[in-house]
Amino acid sequence: MEPLLRVDHLKKYFPLARGPLTAKHGQVHAVDDVSFTINPGETLGLVGESGCGKTTVGRCLLRLIEPTAGQIRFEGTEIAGLSRMAMKGLRRNMQIIFQDPFGSLPPRMRLRTILTEPQEVHGVGSPPERMEAAMAMLQKVGLSSEHMHRYPHEFSGGQRQRIAIARALMLHPKLVIADEPVSALDVSIRAQILNLMVRLQAEMGLSYLFISHDLSLVKYMSDRIGVMYLGRIVELAGREELYRRPLHPYTEALLSAILEPKIQPKRKGLYLGGEVPSPIAPPSGCHFHPRCPCRAPDCEEIRPELRDAGGGHWVACHPR
Amino acid sequence: MLRYITQRTLHLIAVLFFMSIIVFSLIKLIPGDPVGYILGEQATAEQRAMLRTQLGLDRPLITQYLEWAGKAITGDFGNSLLYNKPVMDSIKERLGPTILLAFASLLISVTLGIFAGTLAAANRGTWGDVGVLLFSLLGVSIPGFWLGIMLILLFALKLPIFPSIGYESMFTNFLECMRHLTLPAITLGAASTGSIARFTRSEMIEQLSRDYITTAWAKGLSRPAVIFRHALRNSLVTVVTLVGLILGTLLSGQVIVEQVFAWPGLGQLIIAAVFGRDYSLVQAIVLLTAVIFIALNLLVDISYSFLDPQIRLGKKG
Amino acid sequence: MVDQDRTEIIMSESSPPGFLTAGEVSRWTILAARVKANKNLVVGGVLVLIFVFMAIFAPYLTRYDPNKRDFSARFAQPSMHHLMGTDHFGRDTFSRILFGTRISFEVGIVSVLIGMIIGVIIGAVAAYWGGFIDSLLMRMMDGLLAFPQLLLAIALVAFMTTNLGTVSIAIGVVFIPRFARVMRSAVLVEMKREYVEAAKAIGQSGFKILFRHIGPSTISPVVVLATLVFAFAVLTEAGLSFLGLGLPPPNPSWGRMLDEARHYLSASGWTSFFPGVAISLAVLGFNLLGDGFRDFLDPKMSGAVDMGKRESLGD
After folding, report:
1. Cα angle at B187 between B193 and C44, to 5 degrees?
2. Looking at residue C268, which CATH number applies to its domain?
């Protein structure tokens, strides 16, 4: 089966200083050679601490940020070099839900405009048809369509996120990038929104790229999970497989940090010292080697590539 | 630091460039043939041709600009048609009175403004404070020419204290000079006084709420000492900004005030030039004023960043 | 795992936006209260409305033709016949003031519109496209700002035949850079917000984004500036007329009235008094109105509660 999305060696470096008269004092290696695929109908989770580059990856896929290098293929079509017009057509298939429900909706636009706009931009249907579609979608996400004339600030955070989801789905995309969709919401609301996303996925045949720093959320939502550290994917595996058999020390550390109210033999915990280094001057070789408890001499010199550990389980770590 | 200076210089050059383009293109605003406009109906064909060559109008636009700019930098603006001498000479004659008036108004507005603003801040909420605020609001709204006329009416005609118009050099007769200077300087300074008072007031209010003032009170210092010695000194840093604020008002207002009081400065000169269709003179005065304005603003900016580390240290102390 | 979907109902129809109140308080009551609390807005508004009234109903408020000369009644003192006296040509001052209001408003409106429309476009383009275009446009604006305001207006109008159009353009050009700057800051602030990215993700064109998404959030600062700038337009028009560079006679511009009157100060002080009062009050009114708008439109002081903060209610 042809993957829906295929990312190869994606890189994004940000120059540090700006201005014609200033010398570049280095770059921020936000995304440092990242590759993965997403299959139709599945959810790929991308997890990592803040600053690991996962948000940048999401933005690059939609070319909201232009990648520095690498290939992005959607249904076989290479995205990175497309013209604006061609890209616009592709946007119908890929949409995004942002983290901040307050900032991601235009404050002075009424709901009805916000929701009919996507179809209007792409010339889908007549105005009354768009309105109908908008009302139907609004109901689908659990809101009453009688609020079409209201402004975003009249709704609560959870409701706004529902609106954001509705907006993203108006064009019936195949892939939805969810960038920390519930991190800004109250804990009690999170489950509702996540379940809504799961339900919609089944109903509309969506694929998700679920980005989050919260491993428990990612575990709940994803079929496969990619763990990112300092701009690189260090491990990529199916959900159960990752949980039961983490191969990368960083993944182990993340798992150890999850508090679980279970009466089960506790996993052997791995606790890291130190802080995440700056992405401006990342450590050589394996980025993780300064904090790694099983560091080998090779780790400092050679960058580990993602190698197949069997059963769809990939890890970027030198064999120990 | 070097980066800052380079950026600033480039910025300055760009601004000067665009400004000069604007001044240069003023002549293009004249409807029809500029030469005919300047010389009038009676001009002969020879005179027109001569003026045309003189102004460089027979050459391509870019050459015109470069020549004009080149000469301008050296101070050569050609001859004034009105006064039949080099433009720069006419300007130089008027510089003295202009600077005198500008300086006097600056002095008045800064001292009066700071004083009023300080008192207002110290007596916040009282009628005095309200009065100062009202006064500054009026200062911005009342047109300078009207204030001037009213002052003449009251203090020169009804009560003959000051002369209504005219100028006396300070070197020939100092007292007379001051007498002639008073009304114009007050008129020109009025609007600025208001702005400065308002600004000083808000700065002082902020300073007076700081901890070190409370310490001064606790030490038992007298009221004037606290206000003037401590708070004011720190607010003075912003005097520089104040001057920057009112520069534009002073430079603009001077044209009007000089008309009202027949003060022989550059303001009066430019009006005479406009009505006399002395285009070169108008252009020269406008350019010079803009350059001075840019220069003074630059000085304000630079001195502000100089004082900045002082402010930083002061705030931490 | 909770797997329930609930339809949320937010609030009753008659509540003002963002407000959850116990009783049924209409949004108009709250608006009126806020307006009354803002003294600047009230006083400024009243003053401006008075002048608007004068401008519109000028012919009905006086029985004298503002340009009719009557040499038998020169320099008359204010009286029942001539409310504000007469000038050196025997023309009724009150009528001239009334019709002068029209001139001030006409020039004011046209010049502010010119400055606003051009300035706003430049500011928005500079902010949205950034980079070189931004630097270029802003340096050009700085070039305009290099001139003291009145001087620039004088320079522009100096060699043009003066009529409503040219005077308004001359004053309007002075305002362009100010509007450009304000618009640019407002747009830059909005562009950092995520909804702009969201609009790009949908594929919306830059122009539409500026207009529909960012634009409405920039209205407030522009309106405040427009009001304050109007005050300045009135003042500048008066100044230009005073210098003889405004609308030609016999147009009863207040500034020109002052210029004519000052030559006859010994004959009558009243002729110079009233035009000045008119100018001052008009400028004062717009200044107050502008300050009032600034405070009124400041979202922090609007008093409305952002529903987003009240997560648990209604969700």
Report:
1. 60
2. 1.10.3720.10
Specify if C23 maps to a domain.
no
The CB-side HSE value for C234 (13 A sphere, CA atoms) comes to 30
For chain C, give the number of residues. 315
At position C86, the amino acid (one-letter code) is T
Reference B22, options B305, B309, B295, B289; nearest CA is B289
Residue among C43, C133, C154, C289 with most chain B CBs within 10 A, to mutate: C154
Contacting partners of chain C (3+ CB pairs under 8 A): A, B
Q: Please report, in tens digits, the pLDDT of each residue of chain C (315 residues total).
A: 333 333 333 333 343 454 444 555 677 777 777 777 788 888 999 999 999 999 999 888 888 888 888 888 788 888 887 888 888 888 888 888 999 999 999 999 999 999 999 999 999 999 998 889 999 999 999 999 989 889 999 988 887 878 888 999 999 999 999 999 999 999 999 988 899 999 999 989 888 888 889 988 899 899 999 999 999 999 999 999 999 898 888 888 999 999 988 888 878 778 888 999 999 999 999 999 998 888 887 765 444 444 433 333 333
- Per-residue b or e along B274-283, where b marks 16 or more CB atoms closer than 10 Å to that residue's CB: beebbbbbbb
Residue B300 phi/psi, 5° resolution?
Answer: -60, -50
Q: Give the structural domain span for C293.
A: 49-65+81-302
pLDDT at C17: 52
**Does residue C59 fall inside a structural domain?**
yes
Determine the Cα–Cα distance for residues C245 and C161; give it in Å rounded to an integer: 9
The verdict on residue C288 lying in a domain is yes
For chain B, which chains pass the contact test of at least 3 CB pairs under 8 Å? A, C
Complex ipTM more than 0.95, yes or no: no
Dist CA B119 CA B113 (whole Å)? 10
Contact C139 B11 (CB under 8 A): yes
Sign of the Cα pseudo-torsion (B44, B47, B49, B55, in order): negative
Take residue C73 and report the two structure tokens written for it.
């009644």
Q: Is B232 exposed, middle or buried (0-12, 13-18, 19+ CB in 10 A)?
A: buried
For residue A319, give the amino acid letter: P
Determine the pLDDT at residue A310: 80
Return the sign of the alpha-carbon dihedral for residues B135, B141, B147, B148.
Answer: positive
pLDDT band at B61 (very low <50, low <70, confident <90, very high): confident
Count CA atoms closer than 13 A to A213's CA, side-chain side: 9
Residues of chain A with pLDDT under 70: 1, 17-25, 259-269, 320
A172: left (phi over 0), alpha (psi -120 to 50) or beta: left
| Cis before C250? omega within 30 | yes
Encoded amino acid at A81, one letter: G
Residue A37 pairs in a beta bridge with A6
Please report whether residue C43 resides in a domain. Answer: no
- A19 lies within 8 A of chain B by CB: yes
The predicted pLDDT at position C310 comes to 36
pLDDT in tens, A271-296: 777 777 877 778 888 888 778 877 77
Q: Give, in degrees to the nearest 5, the angle at Cα A240 between A235 and A244.
A: 75
Provide the 3-class DSSP secondary structure of residue A41.
coil
Top-confidence range, B28-32, B204-208, B312-316? B204-208
| CA C281 distance to own-chain centroid | 15
Q: Which of C111, C29, C27, C92 is nearest to C286 (CA)?
A: C111
Q: Is the CB of residue A31 less than 8 Å from the CB of residue A56?
A: yes
- For residue A22, which residues of chain B lie inside 8 Å, CB to CB? 3
- B158, closest residue in chain C (CA to CA): C266
Shortest Cα distance from C151 to chain B (angstroms)?
Answer: 6
Could you give the number of structural domains in chain C? 1
Reading the block at residue A208, the tokens are 């998700």
User: H-helix or E-strand containing B137?
Assistant: helix B127-141
